[in-house]
Amino acid sequence: MGTYYVKGNYRTAESRELKKGEIMKFPYSQKVLEHFRNPHNVGKIENPDGKGLEGSPACGDMVAVYIKVNPDTKVIEDAKFESYGCASNIATASIITDLARGKTLDEAKKITWKQASEELGGLPPIKAHCSVLAVEGLRAAITDYEEKHGLVTEKEPTTEEVIRKRLKHVMNPLTGLDIIRTNLILKTTIEDGIVRVVVDLPANHQFAPAIKEDIMEKLGSLWDVERVDVVFTA
Ligand code: FES
Asked: Model pTM?
């Protein structure tokens, strides 16, 4: 791996902005830099068949992956991503969406962060979590598709823990972090297939409809959930 440095207005692993002229001393391969500067498959797919949103506890960054799937062959015909992460995350999301296109869901599930890192000519070890994040985003999009199409074979009952875990994949647009970590969720319950989620925001808040839609999408596809009620505090 050659040694390249990124400087400019980027974020560090500690999620702080670099000062002007400060050099980020992570060695990046030429391929990482190519995918970072000209990432493939950037953007959002409207009405995707599957969508995954993953956040990293290590740095607070997030990545969203969208897929279009052929319903007969289960081949991923299109894959795109939006990243709020660093150069490694963007480069990994770029390469894994390339790798996923043309693969069946089962084949795409087997793409690992190690494989992505190798394709990129290696990543600094401190940046491993960034590529894991992108790979998990793709896996979450595949799981989302499988749940929506009744393809999940291991059916665990939905508990409050499952609900909270799911809600970690809903972003709070006020902060760019998920709604659990930012304490936006006051209470969750599940009873007879009815989920109730209490959100600490007024119903007329500008982000309330988007958050509600995301929550309903994340929880509504669970096999034993019949209805999702999202309640705002005022
Ligand atoms: Fe957050 Fe890389 S430092 S994704």
From this structure: 0.74
